Amino acid sequence: MGLVVHSSRLTLKALSLDLFPHLRQANYFPAHLDAHLQGLRMNSACYGWGPWIIYLRDSDEVIGDIGFKGKPDNWHTVEVGYGIRKPYRLQGYATEALEAILNYCFQLTEVTRVTAECRHDNLGSIRVLENNHLFPETEHLQMVNWQLTKNQYFSKRNALAASSDTGS
C-alpha cells in the first residue's frame, strides 16, 4: 500500500513506481515526478521524501502533488513544494494537502523544521503558507523563504485546539 495520508477531502500517496500507470491514465506526469522515480530506482531510501500525489478522496481523481525536495538534511530540515491542477485551484486543496503533509512530517518523522519558497507575488501560494502558519524568513531575488519549526507547529495546533474547546 505504501505511504498514505488522508485528510477530510484528500488522499496523499508517496510517489512510487506502482502509481505510474494511474498517473499516465490521469494524464498527470510533470517532469519532477519522472526525476524522482529515476532517483528511487537508484536509492529506495528516497521513498517518501519526494512528491506525494494528491487525490480527491471520494473519486481517486489526481488533482496535483505536494511533497519534499529530498531527504531531511543534517539539521532535520526539509523543503516542501506543491502544485494543484488549474480546475482544482482556489478550493482550499493546497492548504489542506500542506496541512496533512505537515502533520505527517512532524508527527511521524524526525523532521524539526520545514521550509518552502515562493515568489513574492504568488498570492495563492503565500495564502497557503500563511494558512498553515509558516513564517516568511528571508527574501532574495523576488523569492520569499518560509519556515515552520516542529515546536511552532505544535504550539499553534495546541492554541487552536484550546480556543475551539473554549468556544473562542
From TrEMBL:
<keyword id="KW-0808">Transferase</keyword>
<dbReference type="Pfam" id="PF13302">
    <property type="entry name" value="Acetyltransf_3"/>
</dbReference>
<dbReference type="GO" id="GO:0016746">
    <property type="term" value="F:acyltransferase activity"/>
</dbReference>
<feature type="domain" description="N-acetyltransferase">
    <location>
        <begin position="1"/>
        <end position="159"/>
    </location>
</feature>
<keyword id="KW-0012">Acyltransferase</keyword>
<protein>
    <submittedName>
        <fullName>GNAT family N-acetyltransferase</fullName>
        <ecNumber>2.3.-.-</ecNumber>
    </submittedName>
</protein>
<dbReference type="InterPro" id="IPR000182">
    <property type="entry name" value="GNAT_dom"/>
</dbReference>
<dbReference type="InterPro" id="IPR051531">
    <property type="entry name" value="N-acetyltransferase"/>
</dbReference>
<dbReference type="InterPro" id="IPR016181">
    <property type="entry name" value="Acyl_CoA_acyltransferase"/>
</dbReference>
